[in-house]
User: Fold these one by one.
Assistant:
Number 1:
Amino acid sequence: MPLLSMTSLLRHALDGGYAVGYFEAWNLESLLAVKDAAEAAESPVIIGFNGKFLGNRHRRVKEIIDHYGSLGRSVAEHARVPIALILNEAYEPALLQAALDAGFNVVMHDHEGCSLEQSIQINISLVRAAHAVGAEVEAELGELPAWDIGEKKMSAGIATDPGEAERFVTMTGVDALAVAVGNVHILEGRKSRLDLDLLAQLRKRIRIPLVLHGGTGIEKDDLKAAIAAGICKVNVGTALRRTFINSMKGYFQKHDADILDPGEVTSTGGELDMLAAARADVAAEVVRLMRIFGSVKKAGA
Ligand SMILES: [Zn+2]
């Protein structure tokens, strides 16, 4: 079906007491894995890519964002479940505009290093540009701590202030707000605890859908409590990338690729295809998370 607006999916979720997952892709297999999962679970879903990664200036090849937009739209059009398509967390306004031109129907600015006033100004312009083409804007207020796996250290975060959030939403007109309530970016090996009181205060003052980034590192019970308290979108990236890596590692432990037909290993999609195996493993992880989010069998809602 054609792309649906993210807020229409999220309003249904809020009414139904569940959350829609944004499962971040990085290539064709991961994108299709999310679609496979959503169809198997009969769940609405948000698909997309990360603007910080696609726009990373250290990439060996500069990416053309239009490829990713076309890919996402095509996947949505062929899917049997409702889908919205986001370019998540892009720094550069030019990249966000390119994403709107490429047909992403949600964009999000990454505000790291911006003052509140800068972030307000950027989001005012972004909302104007997005709404003009029927797209929507997610923004983040406060700052999630991030886990550094090498250093085993957490950066300091800034919890979202309810009064500031209310002012931000009113001034910018953004469509969804990501909040920092104890959730942590890229957290593995341990779980963060959420400040559910702060979330309840935010919910009272903010009328637009609230979003939790850092879904990988949140305790299952906390996630469920946050969804009950009004979170209707949860972002997951790290858990899917880790699943993909582990699948490839497992493949090479099990098979000697040196004596296999390279076509079988990479291209046929059959039993010996490592990319097909990774796609299936990622899809299984997405279905597992959809069960926790409560979105299974909500595609027709
Ligand atoms: Zn994030």
Number 2:
Amino acid sequence: MMRVDCRGVSTEGLADSEQIRVASDCYIKNGYAILDNILPEAKIAALHVEFQKLYRDYLDDVERDDSVEVGKSRFLMHIRLCDGFGDPMVYANPYVLALVRKVLGADAILEAFGAVVSLPGSAPQHVHADGPALFNSEISSLLPSHALTFALPLIEMNETHGSTAIWAGSQRWAKHKEDVPSEVPTIPVGSGMMWDFRTYHSGTPNRSNQARPMIYMTYARPWFRDPVNFWKEGQRRLMFGAGFVESLTDDTRPLFSQMLRIAPGSEAEKTG
Ligand SMILES: O=C(O)CCC(=O)C(=O)O
């Protein structure tokens, strides 16, 4: 699988860097991109500890009012943007953001922030795309990308803990092709993978005895809202911790233009 190593890559002028160009080409051609070494391992280890402390109750094999079972022993949940999770290196990582803005436009938003937790014994997930075809039409597969999922694992995604199997190029398919094999990447701690909302993928079983939390971020063009994954009253797409909005900068505030009443693409201006 094609991967882009960001270790030591300067965050100055990233948009025009060779790494982001290669990652963007891969994303457009294959419907996914893997970015290695975007965060220090110690930062992810600290997030893992924080997750286990704050979200202990989500490690039980039971669907809650504010979570959704998305496969046997696999749960989708929201995460509050605060403390370690409110760090812009996480939700607006410079490597991720440079790629997001290249493929979705400079006015891309963070539409949702949460985790998919795959518990020990989780089964192979159904093969799916993250959203339905735009306009419910085959034209959707010909269009530029409108939204993507970025997955940041808190423990390594691998054969033992489970990973996300991905069908390269499937963002251009009208339906899933059973006879095409998937690719199953290993994603080390400190690395992440993004896939187009149209790309077919499936979580693989967790064969270990520890939960595999994978932080996910949905980035989207400013007009798009995920129409299928949020249907329970208790679910939240975004939750801001105290002081989070005040901590936003001219660079990160436009990611929340849908929440803060900022005209998409305008100079960031906080009105809320
Ligand atoms: O658990 C995973 O690896 C993938 C989860 C996923 O794709 C989903 O729930 O939409």
